[in-house]
Specification:
The structure is a homodimer. The first copy, chain A, is about 55% helix and about 15% strand. Chain A is an alpha+beta fold. Chain A has one domain: Arc Repressor Mutant, subunit A. A three-stranded antiparallel beta sheet of chain A has the order 1-3-2. The longest helix of chain A is centred in the last third of the chain and has 25 residues. At the A-B interface, helix 1 and helix 4 of A face helix 1, helix 2 and helix 5 of B. Chain A binds a DNA duplex (30 and 30 nucleotides) through helix 2 and helix 3.
Chain lengths: ~110, ~110
DNA sequence: CACAGTATCTTGCGTTGCAAGGTACTTACC
DNA sequence: GGTAAGTACCTTGCAACGCAAGATACTGTG
């Protein structure tokens, strides 16, 4: 899969999954991987960025086997961001598809 | 507009426009700018890359006012690439949209 | 004890788009 | 003639992002 396509999109993917339920990082990788190939080296820096920007908060929870899980929960600002980026993505998608279909004039 | 969304997509946009007609660089910027914000500093390196990879050939043509125009024409390999990247983009788009809609299971 | 599985994190690299700047030609205006 | 604006090309250095690779730590199994 074209790595470049993913740039910026993984962020809205993470926000969108978190909008449905709180997740820990490893879980997010598994969820998103069902649709889009993603690695751990990508998700953790992304989650830290989202936390720095105030879009998520975290809380620890013990796990049956293995290290304790760090859950991520969307904040109000995170929900707003999710909504805005979703709109932006759909608008972008429509623009690209119009271009690929040869409808090159904005006035169509 | 989110700059990151464009990564990799501008290449298929250029290939797609060139699949309809030969264009010169400045023209491509104008065509694509109707839908997606793009600058000259992006398009020229991209065109050189496409030429290096053998996806386009070039020919010069005089212009009424201003510098001579360098037209870009898709090669066979370029047409193949256009087709493949278009498929890939549409597949990617569908995956992302499924994720954003909460259909997180590949078996849906 | 060694290994696999779960779960987190960091470092350095490659790719790509962009702002900013430069070149060169033509037309229009003063 | 000089200056500006428009057309058209190009290059350099920067910033953002995803990834491979590796490190850490805990649990359960052989």
């Amino acid at each position: 899969m074209n790595i470049q396509f993913k740039k910026g999109v993984l962020e809205i993917c993470v926000l969108s999954v978190l909008a449905h339920k709180d997740c820990y990082g490893y879980e997010l990788v598994n969820e998103i991987s069902k649709r889009i190939d993603i690695s751990e080296g990508t998700i953790y820096p992304l989650l830290h960025r989202l936390k720095d920007e105030g879009h998520v908060t975290t809380y620890l929870q013990e796990s049956a086997g293995g290290a304790p899980r760090k859950y991520y929960r969307l904040t109000e600002s995170g929900r707003k961001e999710e909504h805005e980026q979703k709109e932006e993505w759909m608008q972008f998608c429509a623009s690209v598809n119009a271009l690929l279909e040869g409808k090159n004039h904005a006035a169509d």
